[in-house]
Amino acid sequence: MVEIPDTLPARMFLLAYDLRKERMTQHGPRLGYVLRAAALTELFLDGRLVEEHGRPVPGTPGDDPYGLLAEISASRPRSWQHWIRKDVRAMAGTVREELARERWIRVTRERRLGLFPRDRVSVRDPRVVKALWGGASSALRGRPVAHVNSYDAAAVALAAAGEMASVLPGSDRRRHRRRIEELTARSGPAVPAVRKLLRARRAAAAAG
């Protein structure tokens, strides 16, 4: 059996990798939104975050691998969207460094068009991504929603909200809309907040 990362943000980062094209398919704020939402979702599913008046507040004390609990505890109550938007680029960098340090991925420096330096991410063992994709696919098409592993359910819900075509092409999001809604309901408030943020970004771009 293939070992996979423990944390939901690490899993979502790897799911953003396209094995066929051998590159990341998510970049910039959108990837950051998904990863921040994944961290919040993990805390919510474990009871370390709860919702009061539509906002996240600390719940049962526990691990805080990405420092979000500390941020939320030190702040006045703010919306889920606020915490998903905050420090998105830093979050992507933190998760990437974690995966590189633990040897799930390799990060190399290259030049785009021979001129512009950028980092290239490659997965060390493609079986890890295949195993994560298999879990997401099973959650989407397999057993009753109540019996789906909570992280697999959240992975599908986050991939749909973040429009991650590497996991869920648009055709699959439309075909399985009801199932995705059921998985989203299991996964907590951070997931629909991602969808709202992306819609707001598109509306702002269209108006601008």
TrEMBL record:
The keyword Membrane applies. It is found in: Golgi apparatus membrane. GO terms for cellular component: cytoplasm; endomembrane system. Its main location: Golgi. This is GPP34 family phosphoprotein. Keywords: Golgi apparatus, Lipid-binding, Membrane. It is a peripheral membrane protein. InterPro entries: GPP34-like (IPR008628), GPP34-like_sf (IPR038261). It comes from the Bacteria. It comes from Actinomadura litoris. GO terms for molecular function: phosphatidylinositol-4-phosphate binding.
